[in-house]
Design a protein that fits this description.
The complex is a heterodimer.
Chain A (H helix, E strand, L loop, with lengths): L2 H28 L4
Chain B lengths: L9 H12 L2 H5 L1 H7 L6 H26 L3 H8 L4 H31 L9 H9 L13 H19 L2 H28 L4 H9 L9 H14 L6 H6 L8 H34 L3 H4 L3 H15 L4 H35 L3 H16 L7 H31 L3 H11 L6 H29 L6 H23 L12 H8 L1
Classes of the chains: A mainly alpha, B mainly alpha.
Chain lengths: 34, 504
Amino acid sequence: MSGAAVTMMLVGMVLIWGSLAASVWWAVRLHRRR
Amino acid sequence: VAAREEWGSRLGFILAAVGSAVGLGNIWRFPYVAYDNGGGAFFLPYLVALLSAGIPLLVLEYSLGHRLRGSAPLSFRRLDRRAEWLGWWQVAISFVISSYYAVIIAWAAAYTWFSVGQQWGEDPDGFLFGSYLQVVEAGELGGLVAGVALPLALIWLVVLGVLWRGVARGIELANRILIPLLVTMFLLLVVRAVTLPGSAIGLEALFRPDFTEILNGRVWVAAYGQIFFSLSIAFAIMITYASYLPRDSDLTNNAFIAGFSNSSFELLAGIGVFSAVGFMAVTQGIAVEEVATEGIGLAFIAFPQIISTLPGLNTLFGVLFFGSLVLAGLSSLISVVQTYVAALQEKFGLSRSRAVLFGGGASALISLLYATRGGINFLDLADYFINNFGIVLAGLAEVVLVAWVFRRLGLFQQHANTLSDLPLGRWWLLSLAVVTPLVLGSMTIDNLWTTLTEGYGDYPIPFLTSGWLVAAGALVVGVLISARRAWSGEHVDLVIIDEEEQQR
């Protein structure tokens, strides 16, 4: 795979899976109420 | 009136909402759309579309259902007496979708069985249209296909059985089983796919960015279209599901979790599908562009070829792939049918079991049309017209009515903000009042122009007319049902909106 393709794959993973992880973390750790 | 049913837990709601959003489109549509619209560069318009239309619409529908505590027709009726038709239109769209969606799941169930020993043989194309579906000319029926009708009956039995048991004991329990199972099976599939020879070539084709495409309007329309069709919005589902949330629920956070879960699964599917496509291209010595495809062609022709070519564990890989399609489809179908089960209960005062029997039973009967030898043509037509001239228009009507005609966006913003950690700011209002109507409006004009000038899929005009009739029929049925003013099952005069306004 080319560097550009690998980079975009990683960018997509970090942005999308990272945002999901952050949303779940926010629900579990940061919520004031349910 | 009995107390409204509720989800047993927050996780239960999220799993059900994700189960609804994650469907066949995530597996067989997203990978090709991304590949065909700039590859890795597609992430930019895709994420912009998710944040400027997808998640804002999810929050709106969650707030609508949660604030007004009803199925889509009841929620819109409570929003304004003149809006009930929109709820019934969306429910009618769901009814049409459920009738053919069940049939695709039935094919996937049959193919899970065909995977054992790769029963499609050397020619999966001929097998699908010949031996299995025995397809006849567009517009002809040609008798019921037993290989479709039998799994179809089983699918309906499962779905109606789940709905019969209710929200917490049925839908929630089913999704608590279906979603973890789907994710596990799909992860195994992806791991096998990326370790195949040639997978890097497929991934290269999917992720190689073509940044010039970002300036292409078509790519942005594709991104908004993918987000819109993938999230189960604008056909009554999310309004219905959110109406069973407990009073104290973080709606905005739930929308972010559901939206990003859906996209996460799509990304995973892209990696799995294009790894497998790369493998096939390498083993056959052809270019990825000759193998890359979407929809029925990808799932029922390309994948059987891939499964047959694998160096080992062919049956297991096949069962994982088609089993995943079945699970993803089932959790979506359950949510689609629930929209009209809930609406029938509330409008006509039916018990849950009767609403399941009449509503689901009617859809199951109609689905037999698509289980005939000519069924695939009817299915293709209904799918095209109900998506492009049903869902898109109903979504457009929803944002225009709520934002501009009844001017209630502020109310739902306030409702979500009272309950959620993250306050919705101006971006949310701008997304729903400006961005979404513009995008859906331009999609409608584009769809109309293309269909009127070019037709669709080489079908003859009389057959195409039946597609227009299906799309128009959903709207007409919606308007007709809303003409009956009475609600036998729920008090519509629960004036929730005015109560709050008086407090201000």
